[in-house]
Amino acid sequence: MTFRIAPSILSADFARLGEEVRAVASAGADLIHFDVMDNHYVPNLSVGPLVCAALKPHVKLPLDVHLMVRPVDRLIPDFAKAGAGIISFHPEASEHVDRTIALIKENGCKAGLVLNPASPLSFLDHTLDKLDLVLLMSVNPGFGGQQFIRSVLPKISAVRKRIDAVTKMSGREIWLEVDGGIKTDNIAEVARAGADTFVAGSAIFGSKDYAATIQQMREKLAVL
């Protein structure tokens, strides 16, 4: 299994955002996770497509855009134009989940569906074969720096089984990303449950040495 580490800019120093993104890219990140909050779907307000477009020239890594907004469809073309490589959304924020997935792909991006800790896996019943990524929240969305919710571990394993079944039938690659409370001391456990892509915000941007922290995470994953 290929593992990917995606630092979340939500925990970066926003006064030096371009510099921060370049730093984690140089430190060995695989993706840049871009959290978008609207103060409607979640109780916080973060950044929009203008910031995404401003960051794009600073990094060659894919921009992994996580839309925590309602309604979601209006912003998808804007983020695609701003340079997003992946756009993920919450099914609760979409009037028609299939249509939103199709809209993301029509705009040239990979499509992801995000499930909160209490969101049922039934959202995947008729969508998984169309997705490029499933993002499982291991905290309730809206704030950075939260503690990992351990009850999500069985959910990760259940989604991994679903993904493996689709991959076996179709040969399609579908990533399983986990976001919330990922640190060096629990990343291996999350990987054992079935995740292959890990969003880490404060664990990386809150450390003194980004490269050393990412390397420690990779060392934890290498023994699996």
Give the rounded overall mean pLDDT.
Answer: 96
Oligomer: single chain
Strand content bin: 15-25%
- Termini distance? 10 Å
- The strand order across the widest sheet is 1-8-7-6-5-4-3-2
Count of DSSP strands: 8
The helical percent reads 25-40%
Shape: globular
Your description of this structure?
With 224 residues, the chain is of the alpha/beta class. It contains eight helices and eight strands. β7, α6 and β8 form a beta-alpha-beta unit. α5 crosses α6. It starts with a strand and ends with a helix.
Quick recap:
The chain has 224 residues and is an alpha/beta fold.
Key terms:
224 residues, alpha/beta, 8-stranded parallel beta sheet
Annotate the secondary structure layout.
Elements: E1 4-7, H1 17-26, E2 32-37, H2 49-55, E3 63-68, H3 76-82, E4 86-89, H4 97-106, E5 110-115, E6 133-137, H5 153-170, E7 175-179, H6 187-193, E8 197-200, H7 202-205, H8 210-222
Parallel strand pairs: 1-8, 2-3, 3-4, 4-5, 5-6, 6-7, 7-8
Helix pairs in contact: 2-3, 5-6
